[in-house]
Amino acid sequence: MNYKPENPLIIQSDLTVLVEVNSPHYEAARDRLVRFAELEKSPEHMHTYRVNPLSLWNAAAAGVTTEEIIATLETYGKYEIPQNVGVEIREAMSRYGKVQLHREDSALILSSEDPLIIVEICRHKFVQPYLEKQLDAHRIRVLPLYRGHLKQALTRIGFPVKDLAGYLKGRTLKFQHRPITLSGQAFALRDYQREAVDIFHAGGGPDGGSGTVVLPCGAGKTMVGMGAMKTLQCETLILTTNITASRQWKAELIDKTSLTADQIGEYSGERKEIRPVTIATYNILTYRKSRDEAFPHFGLFNEGNWGLIIYDEVHLLPAPVFRFTAELQSRRRLGLTATLVREDGLETDVFSLIGPKRYDIPWRELESSGWIATAECCEIRLPLPKGRRLDYAVADGHAKFRIASENADKIPLVKHLIAKHKGEQTLVIAQYIRQVEQVARELGAQVIMGKTPTEDRDRLYDAFRHGKLKLLVVSKVANFAVDLPDASVAIQISGTYGSRQEEAQRLGRILRPKSDGGMAHFYTLVTRDTREQEFARNRQTFLTEQGYRYAIRDAEEVFGDA
Predict the structure, then answer these.
(1) Which of 232, 202, 151, 218 is nearest to 358 (CA)?
(2) Which residue has the higher pLDDT, 294 or 202?
(3) Structural domains of the chain, count
(4) Strand, coil or helix: 260
(5) pLDDT tens for residues 463-519?
(6) Which of 296, 329, 361 is the last residue of a domain?
């Protein structure tokens, strides 16, 4: 047997890959592995990845070949690859593109070179409602309205569609990027941002025009969206997570492009403006008076002659919006996110309806190039106070998590960490409103929560951004699309169970490069031997997946630091 003890990968016949963290080739292997496998577990010494059909189809769509995948496993494997692994990888990779959508005159055609695949598709009950007529052994005419529904159904039965049917151009909107922004800064897309735009656009051909770009917070996902808009020169609908994010998009567009304020509309709970560039929130789109009523604002998708729809933080796209996206497949669609992980497991719908992952780059690669700050991640564990142990013992699952999360002994630890980083821009982040308010009182700090008026949020964000506020306590409303470029310390005292997407956003709050070149620090405080510690392992998975080493320390040890 060909044994290479210095290599980090152990490939198993069930398509799991064990990765030895202490191997000298760990980082090189991990950076290649994450292109086609998903991290599942990340204890201290041995991480577990899984290769699955969706991860392979995303890799295929991004241009990764079967040969590259097999070469990675052979190059970094300790042992020979089990024979069935290579077979299954080749089989899954070969399925991407076996079925294609294209146009013949005005008709939408589903085709395959393999007539047996056409037979199987025609007989499948999940697919039949979307088919109009079989034309011959290789072609089926499809009902155009169901282009997206068909892609969803085919992906779920193992035939990911390569959609080459093209897109509507949309109404033209001519504008340029400013070489010098209104705020006086030189502006141009970074190399990796330009590369992401070019891969998404694919020269304007049918291979491009839909898909997802994965970049960390602070790496300029908004700039990628602006780059796609400039390349396409068309009216655009931008969907965001909240009003703050919408207004940041508008501010960035005005600052960095020739677009004017009256060309950019806000469609939210506060305003209903439809302009050549319209920025809407997911909340307004999914608003309805009762569960039995229709969504009154979904008409926005058809109000404008959009040539591009941008889904910001696509991993948070509400399920109802998927339904309308299924009917918008003739529009170009760009998803932007820091992580494709969805807590609801709808990654396949992102793949089939928004589009496959087109571009991804390891966070540590951007860090080494100086585009995002170097980050130190540390979990600090502390015991549950004796007075709460009985409460914890008799509580149910949700209550156990909350008792552990609201451990009052976290507050002295937070004060110690703030003193340690005195003078640095520091965020304290908590899940529960009562805890947020208590911590803010104890620290004498300003606070932002869901009930904080938008004007007050914007004022506090601006003060923090410009260094007038050094400390800010925030609830989970600050997870998404909040521009805090000068934050260098984040102290997470409670989170949403094991949410990996939340960990991505919270780490991203501190990753923007520091003017002094300094390091960013991300702390998460966890109550030992509780459900909170169990869920912390899940959040740790995301950090490890991005290449960050994750230190675990005891609170007493931290208090002992000078």
Answers:
(1) 202
(2) 202
(3) 4
(4) coil
(5) 988 889 999 998 876 655 455 546 788 898 987 654 555 555 666 666 666 666 677
(6) 361
pTM of the shown model: 0.79
Count of CB atoms situated within 10 Å of the CB of 16 = 17
**Pair (121, 42) in one structural domain:** no
* pLDDT tens column, 189-203: 999 999 999 999 999
Q: Is residue 179 part of a domain?
A: no
Task: Give dist(CA 128, CA 150) in Å, integer.
Answer: 9
Whole-angstrom distance, CA of residue 26 vs CA of residue 94: 29
**What distances in angstroms separate CA 266 from CA 217, 272, 278, 375, one per listed residue?**
23, 6, 6, 35
Structure tokens at 30: 């991990």
Considering the domain architecture, whether residues 394 and 492 belong to the same structural domain is answered as yes
- Identify the CATH number of the domain in which residue 274 sits: 3.40.50.300
171-199 burial by CB neighbour count: b if 16+ within 10 A, else e? Answer: eebebebbeeeeeeeebebbebbeebbbb
Same domain assignment for residues 66 and 213: no
Per-residue pLDDT reduced to its tens digit, 44-86: 678 889 999 999 999 998 889 999 999 999 999 999 999 999 9
Annotate 28-97 with DSSP letters as a single string. Answer: HHHHHHTTT-EEEE--SSEEEEE--HHHHHHHHHTT--HHHHHHHHHHHBSSPPPHHHHHHHHHHHHHTT
Q: What is the tens place of the pLDDT at every residue in 345-355? A: 678 888 888 99
Length of the chain: 562
Mark whether 394 and 519 lie in a shared domain: yes
d(CA 48, CA 192): 29
Query: Half-sphere exposure (CA, 13 Å, Cβ side) for 84?
Result: 5
* pLDDT per residue as tens digits for the range 207-259: 889 999 988 777 889 999 999 999 999 999 999 988 878 888 999 999 999 99
